[in-house]
């Protein structure tokens, strides 16, 4: 059985995560399934267990329009066609019937070929705007099947050549079919195959293939060598979720409601395995016993029910006693740790995190270094704060003209005659207001930051001192994941506060000097965590800065981390929080890496030529942001 994760990426190409989110939103809307996610694999696929559909990499390395419309055609087929119109029940019956057939792979691939043809026609009738995407799809796949037909004929892959031949017959027409010795073996099947235009259901597609295959079975010695469709590879396993055969020696039960469509199968998996919790679900999806229960005291399970007791096994006369499962310390999270859950993104469901204060350094050498750095940065801090205060003062005393109320400007009395809505008033000495802004700073605490930690501390110190002098509320947090303790079930993450919003203008220099590197960085999760901290603030301007030296890297987060982080950035922007990324490295990033950062953060990413210039970049960024705040007062 093919699995969604089986496809191996042979290069380091990254699909634009913002574009992937666009495709995902489209798929969710078309399927009316907010739980649906989308990825890219070798062939278009559907996996109910993962609540996921996949576009094909077939559309890569083409012109921009073909790539985009080709991917859209995949989505249309999956979410409008197969989603509601494909009969899972008929397909599973068909699979059982051909289980022992020597050409069963060919049988299945041909049924899917016919179903694809049916759905392309059906979707265009439902949504005429999809016609261009499907026309591009036809042209691209016709060229591909023509080439594959020639190659398969040369290699003697007759079954594969037959799939190519029928695809061309369906989409290009019988009059343009290739002619050679292999094609002559397939001509007898064309008369029956013409009925493809009359197919109205999955069962019709199956019946059509049953009629076509006898004409070519004798000419095909071996089954297919390649896969052309992987759509239904995960469906049989997903369907077994609902098809338990009962317990030996007891009746099988009377539940016969097989899932008829892909949509029903996806929603069953989503409802039963994602949304609900509780011990009553342990056997909920099994077939029930049609006979009488052995106990007269049984009651229907409820989500709120809890395990009251559990027995401890042992020989007779041992000290085994019932124990309360809820009091079992092994089943509880350690104090101070929290489960992330779905609210922090699908890729972070199993994250367990804690929030704590970083210890302030008391070492004389570190404190001496702190004083030295502050002395070196004093001129920059003073220049910035002086500049900002001058701009605020100028704004306070600047004469504001052309107002509807205020002091009358005698030089503009003529405006009463010349203008329909004269505004001859002005005001001075606008009341001073505190800067209406709040800043959050996330600092990558991964192991790769080890050789850049001193420069990072300098930049963070400058950030802290400028905002403290300007009386702007801010928060600084280091984040990291424990790579050595991470498992598929639990990924421990830590947030270490250097300075909290509640600390006001307190000096956190000693805490900054305690910064250190750890293991991994789960950027998307950290951004969502910081967004939750900032979104309830009343300030008009909310900024979240991310100091990092690379792309996200954590347990089972390599391929999905980029998309997850881009999604987290978009979620923050929807909350009116502007996310800015500062890339810290010992050398200028390459074009490929810069493109990746732009995919994640859009235009709000800045890179320094060298690690020594990181503080300078921080100064420029702060000047720009605070100036923006002052101008909007």
Describe it for me?
This protein has 633 residues and is of the alpha/beta class. Helix content is 42%, strand content 12%. The chain is built from 19 helices and 14 strands. It has an eight-stranded mixed sheet with strand order 4-5-11-10-9-12-13-14, sandwiched between helices. Strands 1-3-2 form a three-stranded mixed sheet, with helices on one face. Strand 9, helix 14 and strand 10 form a beta-alpha-beta unit.
Strand order of the largest sheet: 4-5-11-10-9-12-13-14
Structural class: alpha/beta
Strand % is 5-15%
Characterize the overall form: elongated
Portion of residues within helices: 40-55%
The protein's oligomeric status is: single chain
Unreliable stretches covering 5 or more consecutive residues: 1-11, 243-257, 275-298, 306-331
Euclidean distance between termini CA atoms: 62 Å
- The tally of beta strands, per DSSP, is 14
Radius of gyration: 32 Å
**Major sheet: size, sense and barrel closure?**
8 strands, mixed
């Amino acid at each position: 059985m093919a699995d969604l994760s089986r496809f191996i990426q042979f290069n380091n190409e990254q699909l634009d995560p913002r574009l992937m989110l666009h495709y995902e939103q489209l798929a969710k809307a078309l399927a009316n399934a907010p739980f649906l996610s989308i990825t890219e694999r070798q062939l278009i696929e559907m996996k109910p267990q993962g609540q996921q559909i996949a576009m094909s990499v077939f559309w890569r390395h083409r012109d921009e329009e073909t790539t985009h419309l080709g991917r859209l055609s995949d989505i249309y087929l999956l979410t409008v066609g197969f989603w509601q119109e494909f009969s899972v029940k008929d397909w599973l019956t068909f699979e059982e019937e051909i289980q022992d057939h020597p050409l069963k792979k060919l049988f299945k691939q041909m049924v899917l070929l016919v179903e694809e043809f049916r759905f392309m026609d059906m979707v265009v009738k439902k949504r005429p705007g999809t016609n261009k995407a499907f026309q591009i799809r036809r042209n691209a796949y016709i060229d591909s099947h023509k080439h594959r037909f020639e190659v398969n004929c040369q290699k003697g892959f007759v079954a594969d050549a037959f799939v190519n031949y029928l695809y061309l017959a369906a989409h290009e027409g019988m009059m343009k079919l290739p002619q050679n010795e292999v094609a002559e073996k397939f001509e007898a099947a064309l008369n029956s195959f013409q009925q493809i235009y009359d197919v109205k259901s999955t069962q019709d597609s199956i019946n059509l293939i049953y009629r076509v295959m006898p004409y070519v079975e004798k000419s095909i010695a071996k089954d297919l060598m390649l896969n052309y469709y992987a759509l239904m590879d995960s469906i049989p396993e997903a369907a077994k979720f609902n098809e338990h055969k009962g317990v030996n020696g007891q009746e099988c039960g009377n539940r016969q409601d097989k899932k008829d469509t892909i949509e029903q199968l996806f929603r069953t998996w989503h409802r039963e395995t994602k949304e609900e919790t509780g011990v009553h679900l342990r056997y909920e999806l099994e077939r029930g016993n049609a006979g009488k229960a052995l106990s007269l005291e049984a009651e229907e399970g409820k989500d709120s029910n809890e395990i009251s007791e559990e027995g401890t096994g042992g020989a007779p006369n041992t000290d085994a006693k019932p124990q309360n499962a809820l009091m079992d310390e092994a089943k509880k999270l350690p104090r101070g740790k929290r489960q992330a859950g779905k609210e922090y993104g699908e890729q972070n469901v199993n994250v367990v995190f804690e929030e704590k204060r970083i210890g302030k350094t008391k070492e004389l050498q570190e404190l001496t270094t702190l004083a030295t750095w502050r002395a070196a940065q004093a001129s920059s801090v003073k220049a910035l704060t002086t500049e900002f205060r001058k701009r605020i003062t100028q704004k306070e005393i600047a004469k504001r003209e052309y107002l509807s109320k205020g002091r009358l400007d005698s030089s503009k009395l003529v405006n009463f005659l010349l203008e329909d809505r004269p505004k001859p008033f002005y005001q001075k000495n606008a009341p001073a207001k505190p800067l209406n802004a709040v800043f959050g700073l996330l600092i990558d605490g991964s192991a790769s930051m080890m050789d850049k930690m001193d420069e990072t501390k300098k930049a963070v110190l400058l950030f802290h001192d400028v905002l403290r002098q300007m009386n702007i509320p801010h928060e600084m947090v280091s984040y990291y994941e424990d790579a050595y303790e991470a498992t598929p079930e639990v990924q421990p993450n830590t947030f270490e506060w250097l300075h909290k919003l509640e600390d006001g203008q307190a000096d956190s220099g000693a805490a900054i000097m305690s910064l250190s590197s750890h293991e991994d960085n789960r950027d998307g999760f950290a951004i969502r965590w910081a967004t939750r901290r900032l979104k309830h603030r009343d300030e008009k301007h909310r900024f979240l800065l991310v100091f990092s030296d690379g792309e996200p890297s954590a347990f089972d987060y390599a391929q999905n981390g980029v998309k997850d982080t881009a999604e987290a950035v978009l979620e923050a922007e929807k909350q009116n929080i502007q996310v800015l990324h500062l890339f810290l490295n010992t050398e200028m990033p390459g074009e490929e890496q810069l493109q990746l950062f732009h995919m994640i953060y859009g235009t709000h990413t800045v890179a320094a030529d060298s690690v020594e210039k990181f503080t300078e970049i921080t100064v420029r960024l702060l000047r720009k942001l605070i100036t923006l705040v002052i101008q909007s007062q």
